[in-house]
Specification:
The protein is about 50% helix and about 15% strand. With about 210 residues, it is an alpha/beta fold. The protein has one domain (about 30-210): 3-Layer(aba) Sandwich (Rossmann fold), CATH 3.40.50. A five-stranded parallel beta sheet has the order 2-1-3-4-5, sandwiched between helices. A hairpin with a 2-residue loop joins β6 (about 185) and β7 (about 190). α4 (about 80-90) packs parallel to α6 and α6 runs parallel beside α8 (about 155-165).
Length: about 210
């Protein structure tokens, strides 16, 4: 009887994790120290708003010990970025790809449903190349939200993460851009902001089991 009940509990737990759209912290093996990580995105990944070497990929490399490639192109959108993703994957052969796009799409008032499908295409391209995709949430531009410290990630990221069963790190950029002391302008962090971003991403990677903090 106890074995039967324990089995029911495990089934219920797995169902709950799937319904929440996220894998449990033990779902991933930690990447080795010699791992290559591709930070793929737009100006936030590039490091606009801070000096050389102050971008979040450089700081994340220092924290984790991984080789983190900065492939951020200012102004890029989720749809146009797909054209350069496959060549970048072939060049760097990463173990993990951090996908952080959508901000420029929102600024141009693109339909969120279309942006979501563009992001889905990026996730599929990463998987086709044998790497692990990871999404990072982006808030839709809101002057009121930034002024009141209440920016929130657009819901398309959580929906896509649930549908594709891909890990998602939420609230990082929203939190930084909601704090005037951490941003260079309304849509870009400053050096302190990028430092916070790298730290929070590393902590989330630790929670996911992809990185083991010393």
């Amino acid at each position: 009887m106890m074995r039967f009940l324990r089995g029911l509990f495990l089934v219920a737990l797995l169902f709950l994790l799937a319904a929440c759209g996220g894998a449990g912290p033990d779902a991933f093996d930690p990447l080795p120290r010699q791992a290559t990580v591709l930070a793929f995105g737009d100006s936030v990944t590039h490091g606009t708003g801070a000096g050389r070497g102050e971008d979040y990929p450089a700081r994340l490399a220092t924290i984790t010990g991984w080789t983190v490639i900065n492939d951020g192109v200012p102004g890029d959108r989720a749809g146009s970025a797909r054209e350069r993703l496959a060549p970048s994957l072939r060049e760097h052969t990463p173990d993990l790809v951090l996908i952080w796009l959508g901000g420029n799409d929102f600024l141009r008032q693109r339909d969120p449903a279309v942006v979501q499908e563009d992001l889905r295409g990026l996730v599929e391209t990463v998987r086709d190349h044998g790497a692990q995709p990871l999404l990072l949430g982006v808030p839709r531009a809101s002057a009121l939200g930034a002024a009141t410290g209440r920016l929130r990630d657009d819901p398309i990221y959580r929906e896509l993460a649930r549908e594709e069963q891909v890990p998602l790190i939420e609230g990082v950029l929203s939190g930084v851009l909601s704090d005037r002391a951490l941003r260079a302008d309304p849509i870009h962090p400053n050096a302190r902001g990028y430092r916070r971003i790298a730290t929070e991403i590393a902590e989330s990677l630790d929670d996911l089991g992809l990185w083991l903090a010393p």
